């Protein structure tokens, strides 16, 4: 006898929910994937498409390398075989240098994870906003304000490291949380869009840092330029590879970043507050109808996002620089937007994306030395990654990746 509930999406008679009854040969079960990762959708959306986006960006980068040498282009008309060989050699030298500079030595690994530390934290700042349907473009300003408060605590207090370092890190989180919470409050209370307010707050923070570095309280004594006093050793994040070479910059900030990623994962997928964040991001009106306080959610999520951005700034001050100068954030807060998109707004995805972007930063110099390819190619590759991540259907069409079902294509805030 035929049963009407025998299609690929049958309905559970008890819960009324749709149950996936596709054969196992069609791919891993989406319910198992969601249980493992806490992410909606399937592995194609969360893993395969971002990987293919990075691969495509690298391929186009190789094409740019091939056509950017005028002499090599002229050789194609005289000796195509030799031109082909030299083109492959140039591409190999460029990407080989990039990999060697990022992972080919202890110094390369140290630099990769040193760059990855603030990128991961800033990426988490943007990603948690995406999950709640908010576009936090203010990670740059939050890094600056959090870093400045960590700096003041770092040189002003003189206590034991077991108290000083945690206070400085906490100060960085609080500074960023305040700077992120204000746009959240404005969005919740007045409807002011967070894209506009966070952009404005970035510029306010940039100019505030310029001003603060010229005050006698912060400026280093005897220096006419904008440079702060040094953070005391008791507030410095310990270096992890100093036993190999004191010049290796990798510090305990990477531990802070990984713990923060785990904490954001737990918050989003294992806590009631995180469920509210995701519900508000999926449908704020529905969340309000269900009894959730959308106003509180907006303020809280932006405060947490700002705090993570502040942590990114504090790890730069306490772990890498030891003092502050204008632009000490190195524009990493802006890279965080691309990083959160590549990581699909999932904390573990952001970690992997942060390592990738850290490798691009660390390996860029070696790539330029090995192949005479301009370091600007790194920015081109990052931009291409963003383009392909922002247009997943293009990647699906190029590589003929099976699209997810219509029920999965519903946009959940900025997360998908």
In words, what does this structure look like?
With about 425 residues, the protein is an all-alpha fold. It has one domain (about 45-410): Orthogonal Bundle (ABC transporter involved in vitamin B12 uptake, BtuC). The protein has helices at about 30-35, 45-65, 70-80, 80-105, 105-130, 140-155, 160-190, 195-210, 255-270, 270-280, 285-290, 295-320, 330-340, 345-370, 375-390, 390-400; strands spanning about 10, 20. The protein is globular and about 65 Å long.
Give a short overview.
The chain has helices at residues 30-37, 43-67, 70-78, 80-103, 106-131, 139-156, 161-190, 194-212, 253-270, 272-282, 284-289, 294-321, 332-342, 347-371, 376-390, 392-399; strands spanning 9-11, 18-20. By secondary structure, the chain is mainly α. The chain has one domain (43-408): ABC transporter involved in vitamin B12 uptake, BtuC.
What key attributes describe this structure?
416 residues; mainly alpha; ABC transporter involved in vitamin B12 uptake, BtuC; two-stranded antiparallel sheet; 2 strands; 68% helix; globular; disordered N terminus; disordered C terminus
Please render the helix and strand layout as text.
Blueprint: E1 9-11, E2 18-20, H1 30-37, H2 43-67, H3 70-78, H4 80-103, H5 106-131, H6 139-156, H7 161-190, H8 194-212, H9 253-270, H10 272-282, H11 284-289, H12 294-321, H13 332-342, H14 347-371, H15 376-390, H16 392-399
Antiparallel strand pairs: 1-2
